[in-house]
Design brief:
Elements (H helix, E strand, L loop, with lengths): L3 H20 L17 E6 L9 E4 L4 E5 L8 E6 L2 E8 L4 E4 L1 E7 L3 E26 L4 E21 L3 E2 L15
Parallel strand pairs: 1-8, 6-9
Antiparallel strand pairs: 1-4, 2-3, 2-5, 5-7, 8-9, 8-10
Amino acid sequence: MQGMIPFMKLLIVCLLALNTLLWAGCASSNVNPAVPRHDMAYVDFYAAGTNDLYWDVTDTTSNKKVFSEFRPLRESILRLAFKPGHYQFQVTFPNRVIAAAGMADVDVHNGMVTPVMVTLLPMDAVVVQSKTLEAGTSYARYRRRTKTSQTQTVNYKIITEPQPPLPYRRKELMPYFSPSSQ
């Protein structure tokens, strides 16, 4: 039992250190506090005209993915919290065919919101080919076949346009907020 106490202390210290490393990143995912947190700045990503996007945002200055979700947002704005400073973001959407990801250089200021308008610019039509494996049994044998299907879709280029910083307000009070139809 005496040997377990130092081991348990070491384990607790390691877990606390791991927790600190995991939560010490510079971004918080899709936040909307009533008032801005002390020493924090916010970036609002929004795409006018569509609410069905699966957002994927990477901070290329630190090479960290700051938001990725394989479902649409519940609202029209993706708000991320950062320490004040300069960031470069790459924006893409896994549920669209993307020719060029959007890049945005953004200066974020303490207690302010920097909006980034995101536009999907149609480039051309492309054919997406998908294959599915179908398997089944019959009375006499086991059967497997590959089914190929083709779908025509649009190839997009993502344009990001950082806007001037605005005083902090909740997302639903921002001038670019649009109610979600979902």
